[in-house]
Write a structure and sequence with these properties.
The chain is an alpha/beta fold. It is built from three helices and six strands, in the order E-E-H-E-H-E-H-E-E. It has one domain: 6-pyruvoyl tetrahydropterin synthase/QueD (Tetrahydropterin Synthase, Chain A, 2-Layer Sandwich), CATH 3.30.479.10. Helices cover 33% and strands 35% of the residues. Helix 2 links the parallel strand 3 and strand 4. The relative contact order is 0.21. Bound molecules: zinc ion.
Length: 142
C-alpha cells in the first residue's frame, strides 16, 4: 500500500550554465509529493499522515520563499550573504532532478528509524517545478 502527501513552496533559483532563460533568476511554485510504500499496521495505516507532515514540513520551511543557490554560484551566494536574504544552499545545481534526489536522501537520513519502525519498504519523491514537469525517484529501505 502506498500513502502520499503533497507539499508546496515558493522559491527562486537559476542555472548559471543554462543557455536558455533558466540562466536568469526566476521563481517556481514547487510541489513535492512524498510516497511511502509499506505494510498496513494494526490501525490500518502505513504511516500516519500527521507523522508525514511532521517529518517533511521542517524541510519545506527552510526552502519556502528562499532563493535556491548552488554552492558554486559564488556571486549569488556572496550577494545573499551580504544582504542577509534568505537562501537555501545546495551542493549542486538546482534542477528538479537534483532537488528530488536531495530531498529523498534527506528524508531517509533524518527519519530512517521511524520509517523502518512503520515497516516502510520504499520511499518515493516527486518534485514538480511546474504543473507539467516533474522529476521522480525512489529508494528501497534496507
Ligand atoms: Zn527554473
Amino acid at each position: 500500500m502506498i500513502v502520499a502527501k503533497r507539499f508546496n513552496w515558493e522559491a527562486a533559483h537559476r542555472l548559471p550554465w543554462h543557455e536558455g532563460k533558466c540562466k536568469q533568476i526566476h521563481g517556481h511554485s514547487y510541489k513535492m509529493i512524498v510516497e511511502f510504500d509499506g505494510e498496513l499496521n494494526e490501525k490500518g495505516m502505513v504511516v500516519d499522515f500527521n507523522d508525514i507532515k511532521k517529518m517533511i514540513e521542517p524541510i519545506v520551511k527552510q526552502i519556502d520563499h528562499a532563493t535556491i543557490i548552488s554552492s558554486n554560484d559564488f556571486e549569488l551566494k556572496e550577494l545573499f550573504e551580504a544582504k542577509s536574504w534568505k537562501y537555501f544552499l545546495l551542493p549542486f545545481d538546482s534542477t528538479a532532478e537534483n532537488l528530488c534526489n536531495y530531498f529523498l536522501g534527506l528524508i531517509i537520513e533524518q527519519h530512517k528509524d521511524l520509517l523502518v519502525a512503520n515497516r516502510v519498504k520504499e520511499v518515493g519523491v516527486k518534485v514538480f517545478e511546474t504543473d507539467t514537469t516533474y522529476a521522480y525517484t525512489k529508494a528501497t529501505l534496507k
